[in-house]
Amino acid sequence: MDILIRSTPAEVAIAAADIFVRYANAGATLGLATGSTPVAMYQELTARYERQEVSFARSRAFLLDEYVGLARSHEQSYYSTIRRVFTSHVDFIDELVQSPEGDAADSDRAAAAYDQAIRHAGGIDIQLLGIGGNGHIGFNEPSSSLQSRTRLETLHPRTVQDNARFFENTDSVPRYALTQGLGTISEARHLLLLATGTEKSSAVRDMVEGPLSAHCPASVLQLHPRATVILDEDAASQLEDYEYYRFVDEHRPH
Description:
The protein has helices spanning 9-25, 39-50, 78-85, 107-120, 157-163, 182-186, 201-209, 242-250; strands at residues 2-6, 29-32, 60-63, 65-67, 97-98, 126-129, 151-154, 176-179, 190-195, 227-232. The protein is α/β, with parallel strands linked by helices. The protein has a seven-stranded parallel beta sheet with strand order 1-10-9-6-2-3-5. The protein starts with a strand and ends with a helix. The active site is at 65 (proton acceptor), 134 (for ring-opening step), 136 (proton acceptor), 141 (for ring-opening step).
């Protein structure tokens, strides 16, 4: 993994946008994530679009996951969220921004169809990721197979609690989701994971320096030939080799 440590979340967003712009301007297939962490990067990309520095008109996008049981029109569905925070503000072709069908009658069939749609599109060129406090990526909770495909997943109680801030209360949070599996995610040509804040520091430590383990699903990035992890100082604070990562980053050839 390439570990980039920046002083603030705003600097994390800028560094991530620098990478994403290159792919978008090349008309790449983009894997998008929702949640709080990517929002600053999406805002940075929107600002660059308004300055005519980037275009998404030749790109298509696939979302990581979707709640089961929410209609696409629900404000907390990821179909709606990604449009509200990002894609409707730039020049994406809307029908090319795809997400799992969380309100499908047959979740297993919808999951398989989504996995196939990604393959049919030629795969994802760059997949944006966040990390949960328990080490999940997408909604791949601890114990997920490192080779799993897009599927129905039961949300961990910690994930439900973490996501309750987006709903009226904890009881309103869906308990199931359709998520790209760890095997599906790993097929993307470039993985870009962002993490900010001290609440992510232990998960980041386990992902980067811990053993490869289903206990920390994000540790699957250790196997990927091109994974970039961008952290603020708080998220990086528990890394044993913090100073080494800073040195490597500062002396990286350009």
